[in-house]
């Protein structure tokens, strides 16, 4: 394990707003200069972007930003100051007549926790900062740290706050964190010697193809970007569904994340367990954790078991722990850890 | 800058908005006229598909203006996909921004996404 290196583990912020029938475009009306300013505070910048009728997707220098009419998702890695975005975003939304409905802040455990700036050195401090930034109307709040018994250094941290006691979010969010990536697979995410003729966009396209990321979901339009000398990010756009992958390939602190918003009713090729299996297969990691967030009444135990079955059967990954927690107004979180079955 | 506009887009000077190197297409007739007039030449036509709902398009706009002014031998035409739905449909412009490269009436390539470096690369490749 390296003494220090780039922190792949992301901090994730999701803000949801009440619908405004007078304003169907909602948050998408926030002008780019204002968004850019917020990102500046967080210490990141837009490197690529794409949009369709449902949402805007931005690839950032340190991960991703998704803007839907009533939902914003920002995910940033490294030593970014993600929580600084909360107040300005709420303010920009209010200018458009949009009222905050719910907030979720989550992350795994940092590989290099001592390299993080305050308040990210302790989840308790992060929670204090989030709480201070939120209006009192979000009165249903909960902070939780899920610690798997088999691997206490890989905990999952969640803070939620909601104006409603029940969540009506129908999208299921799946966040996969992978470490100890297969060294050969990780090579796809290094820029090649003599490829100066490729810019970051075409190098990104090449990485998408070489790694097989384009095969995870054939319907997805991929907006990719390659970092120099290594590293990769992509946002996937498929109707109103988003997906995103970020890779830190260096040996010693290699990391890859895969996140997507899905419906429980997708089946066949796009079934959750099939998608996850294909995504994890790109990296063949030695350590995988999956955090799945179900809104409202949607928790489906069959799905949890199916994911474990498929990963065991197709990738030889054995589920070592499974925990569940419920968050008022924000749904249920299931957290699973996997490592390869011993040969 | 304004003085040179009409000489760069000699066929379309009547359609120029002041100081713009990107022709804003407002009607199907205007589109047809532009498209037909370029069929006979070897000039590169870059169709810039945008929409009111597209944040990345707005983010990219200043760079597109810069690029259009630098590569003045190419013709840049901006098409709003909601205003000219059939043109957008013909070129399957659903994910935006989409820059479609057309020569002699045929699509030869495209760049999808706010990717200025990629846009410049391809213009340099196809402009001759």
From TrEMBL, chain A:
It is an enzyme of class 4 (lyase). Keywords: Autocatalytic cleavage, Decarboxylase, Lyase, Polyamine biosynthesis, Pyruvate, S-adenosyl-L-methionine, Schiff base, Spermidine biosynthesis, Zymogen. Signal peptide: none annotated. Gene3D superfamilies: S-adenosylmethionine decarboxylase. Pathway: Amine and polyamine biosynthesis; S-adenosylmethioninamine biosynthesis; S-adenosylmethioninamine from S-adenosyl-L-methionine: step 1/1. Its cofactor is pyruvate. The record marks 62-63 as: Cleavage (non-hydrolytic). One of its GO terms (biological process) is plant organ development. Substrate binds at residues 6, 62, 227, 250. InterPro entries: AdoMetDC-like (IPR048283), S-AdoMet_decarboxylase_euk (IPR001985), S-AdoMet_deCO2ase_core (IPR016067), S-AdoMet_deCO2ase_CS (IPR018166). One of its GO terms (molecular function) is adenosylmethionine decarboxylase activity. Binds 1 pyruvoyl group covalently per subunit. The active site is at residues 63, 77, 233, 246. SUPFAM superfamilies: S-adenosylmethionine decarboxylase. It catalyses: S-adenosyl-L-methionine + H(+) = S-adenosyl 3-(methylsulfanyl)propylamine + CO2. The keyword DNA repair does not apply. Transmembrane segments: none annotated. The modification Pyruvic acid (Ser) is found at residue 63. Its EC number is 4.1.1.50. Belongs to the eukaryotic AdoMetDC family. PANTHER family: S-ADENOSYLMETHIONINE DECARBOXYLASE, S-ADENOSYLMETHIONINE DECARBOXYLASE PROENZYME 4. This is S-adenosylmethionine decarboxylase proenzyme. It comes from Cardamine amara subsp. amara.
TrEMBL record, chain B:
Residues 1-128 form the Thioredoxin domain. SUPFAM superfamilies: Thioredoxin-like (SSF52833). Pfam families: Thioredoxin (PF00085). This is Thioredoxin H7.
């Amino acid at each position: 394990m390296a003494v220090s290196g780039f922190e792949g583990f992301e901090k994730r912020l999701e803000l949801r707003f009440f619908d405004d029938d007078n304003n169907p475009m909602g948050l998408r009306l926030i002008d780019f200069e204002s968004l850019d300013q917020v990102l500046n505070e967080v210490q990141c910048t837009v490197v690529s972007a794409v949009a369709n009728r449902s949402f805007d997707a931005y690839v950032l220098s340190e991960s991703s930003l998704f803007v839907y009419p009533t939902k914003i998702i920002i995910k940033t890695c490294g030593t970014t100051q993600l929580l600084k975005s909360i107040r300005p975003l709420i303010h920009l939304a209010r200018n458009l007549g949009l009222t905050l409905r719910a907030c979720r802040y989550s992350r795994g455990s940092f590989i290099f926790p001592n390299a993080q700036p305050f308040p990210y050195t302790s989840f308790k401090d992060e929670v204090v900062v989030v709480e201070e930034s939120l209006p009192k109307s979000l009165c249903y709040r909960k902070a939780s740290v899920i610690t798997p018994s088999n691997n206490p250094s890989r905990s999952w941290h969640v803070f939620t706050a909601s104006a409603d006691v029940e969540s009506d979010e129908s999208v299921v969010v799946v966040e996969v964190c992978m470490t100890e990536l297969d060294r050969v697979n990780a090579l796809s995410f290094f820029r090649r010697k003599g490829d100066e003729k490729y810019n970051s966009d075409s190098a990104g396209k090449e990485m998408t193809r070489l790694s097989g990321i384009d095969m995870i979901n054939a319907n997805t339009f991929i907006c990719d970007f390659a970092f120099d000398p290594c590293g990769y990010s992509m946002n996937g756009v498929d109707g109103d569904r988003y997906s995103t992958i970020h890779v830190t390939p260096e040996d010693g602190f290699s990391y890859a994340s895969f996140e997507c918003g899905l419906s429980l009713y997708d089946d066949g090729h796009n079934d959750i367990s099939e998608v996850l299996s294909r995504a994890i297969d790109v990296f063949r990691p030695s350590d995988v954790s999956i955090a799945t967030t179900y809104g409202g009444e949607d928790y489906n135990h069959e799905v949890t078991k199916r994911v474990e079955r498929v990963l065991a059967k197709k990738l030889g990954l054995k589920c070592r722990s499974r925990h569940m927690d419920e968050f008022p107004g924000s749904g249920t979180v299931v957290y699973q850890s996997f490592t390869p079955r011993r040969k | 800058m304004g003085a040179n506009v009409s000489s760069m887009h000699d066929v379309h000077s009547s359609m120029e908005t002041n100081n713009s190197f990107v022709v804003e297409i407002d009607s199907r007739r205007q589109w047809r006229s532009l498209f037909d007039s370029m069929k006979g030449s070897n000039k590169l036509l870059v169709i810039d598909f945008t929409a009111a709902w597209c944040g990345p398009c707005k983010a990219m706009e200043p760079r597109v203006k810069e690029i259009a002014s630098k590569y003045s031998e190419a013709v840049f035409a901006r098409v709003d996909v909601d205003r000219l739905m059939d043109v957008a449909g013909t070129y399957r412009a659903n994910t935006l921004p989409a820059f479609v490269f057309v020569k002699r009436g045929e699509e030869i390539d495209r760049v999808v996404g706010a990717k200025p470096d990629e846009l410049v690369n391809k213009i340099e490749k196809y402009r001759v």
